[in-house]
From TrEMBL:
<keyword id="KW-0067">ATP-binding</keyword>
<keyword id="KW-0238">DNA-binding</keyword>
<comment type="function">
    <text>Negatively regulates transcription of bacterial ribonucleotide reductase nrd genes and operons by binding to NrdR-boxes.</text>
</comment>
<dbReference type="GO" id="GO:0008270">
    <property type="term" value="F:zinc ion binding"/>
</dbReference>
<keyword id="KW-0479">Metal-binding</keyword>
<comment type="similarity">
    <text>Belongs to the NrdR family.</text>
</comment>
<keyword id="KW-0678">Repressor</keyword>
<dbReference type="GO" id="GO:0005524">
    <property type="term" value="F:ATP binding"/>
</dbReference>
<feature type="zinc finger region">
    <location>
        <begin position="3"/>
        <end position="34"/>
    </location>
</feature>
<feature type="domain" description="ATP-cone">
    <location>
        <begin position="46"/>
        <end position="136"/>
    </location>
</feature>
<protein>
    <recommendedName>
        <fullName>Transcriptional repressor NrdR</fullName>
    </recommendedName>
</protein>
<dbReference type="InterPro" id="IPR003796">
    <property type="entry name" value="RNR_NrdR-like"/>
</dbReference>
<keyword id="KW-0547">Nucleotide-binding</keyword>
<dbReference type="InterPro" id="IPR055173">
    <property type="entry name" value="NrdR-like_N"/>
</dbReference>
<keyword id="KW-0862">Zinc</keyword>
<dbReference type="Pfam" id="PF22811">
    <property type="entry name" value="Zn_ribbon_NrdR"/>
</dbReference>
<keyword id="KW-0863">Zinc-finger</keyword>
Length: 162
């Protein structure tokens, strides 16, 4: 970032603020050479680092297509998926980082997907959290059951009261 006054090629960030919609960062900068201050408005690019080491811009569409497979045959609409992808983007941008691992995005998808559909969640989690045994599934299912009990929705246990 060149100083607009003396063209010094370097500058120091003295303050950063994210715009309300989270798509831009307003930075207050100071030139170390002439000492003058100026403001820049920069688009918040969010890069996703893939396992291969290459990066690409974050895309809600990629989130949707990644989850759609896990939702096959489940009562999940395209609208549900779009809303979920929006929540994922908000969560990721909320981290305030410029780049994120694709695996981390997978983990960010889990909580909203879990609210959306538990079966789709288990399918997706089995891939992203690398379930490699029945016990991994059992642990995840036990977690879902415990949450249900906390919400008072556990109606499928026979002989309640035991
Ligand atoms: Zn300067």
């Amino acid at each position: 970032m060149h100083c607009p006054f003396c063209r010094h090629p370097d500058s120091r960030v003295v303050d950063s603020r994210t715009s309300e919609d989270g798509t831009a960062i307003r930075r207050r900068r100071q030139c170390p050479k002439c000492g003058r201050r100026f403001t820049t408005l920069e688009a918040t690019s969010l890069a996703v680092i893939k396992r291969s080491g290459t990066s690409e811009p974050f895309s809600r569409q990629k989130v949707v297509s990644g989850v759609r497979k896990a939702c096959q045959g489940r009562p999940v609409s395209e609208d549900d998926l779009a809303k979920m992808a929006q929540r994922v983007e908000e969560a990721v941008r909320g981290l305030g980082v410029a780049e994120i691992d694709a695996d981390e995005i997978g983990l960010t998808i889990l909580p909203p997907l879990r609210e959306l559909d538990e079966v789709a969640y288990l399918r997706f989690a089995s891939v992203y959290q690398g379930f490699d045994s029945l016990e991994d599934f059992e642990t995840a299912i036990a977690g879902l059951r415990a949450d249900r009990r906390m919400r008072g929705e556990d109606s499928d246990s026979p002989g309640a009261g035991g």
